[in-house]
Amino acid sequence: MVTKHQIIQWLQAVATVLEQNKDYLTELDAAIGDADHGINMNRGFQKVITQLPKVADKDIGSILKTVSMTLISTVGGASGPLYGTLFLRSSAAVAGKQELTEEDMVKLFQAAVEGVVQRGKANLGDKTMLDALSPAANAFAQAVDKGDSMLAALQQAVKAAEQGMKNTIPLVAKKGRASYLGERSVGHQDPGATSAYLILQTLLETIG
């Protein structure tokens, strides 16, 4: 089970991790984007942690919905709508719940990926956050199908996200600002895939 308390701890930890990696994410984005991904994500999650005390007594779905609304209103660029949609779809998948089973988490991950696909119109291999998220969701679902524990399934998800993130390096960007560079986007790791990996890794660390 993942408890509501762990979800709040995870979101607080994400704010810390994104602050620590703000310059790194912005550096990655400087190579192929607007050089603001780290700054934007940090600003969004610093705002998120100010909102968490207001929803601490609410269910997990409500907490994730608050994260969504906060990110949409504070994060610039493409990341705000994409991460906002990710958390919004996640919140709908676990509405009313105080704790999450492995099956709940499968639904949450699948809903998150579907939201990002619909919002960003991206496919796997387009050099976006989806390249980390989609393999992670699939790996988690496969592990749960095999009867793995929450922790073991999350470990598989994070491993798949890390590989997916690294796989963006040789790709040509097909979406967003990076797509304007065409072949020149090759050789650079996608910042969105990197922030997605960091967020998932932080979830594993919080629950582990």
TrEMBL record:
Residues 5-205 form the DhaL domain. GO terms for molecular function: glycerone kinase activity. One of its GO terms (biological process) is glycerol catabolic process. This is Dihydroxyacetone kinase, phosphoprotein-dependent, L subunit. PROSITE patterns: DHAL (PS51480). It comes from the Bacteria. One of its GO terms (cellular component) is cytosol. The keyword Kinase applies. SMART domains: Dak2. Signal peptide: none annotated. Keywords: Kinase, Transferase.
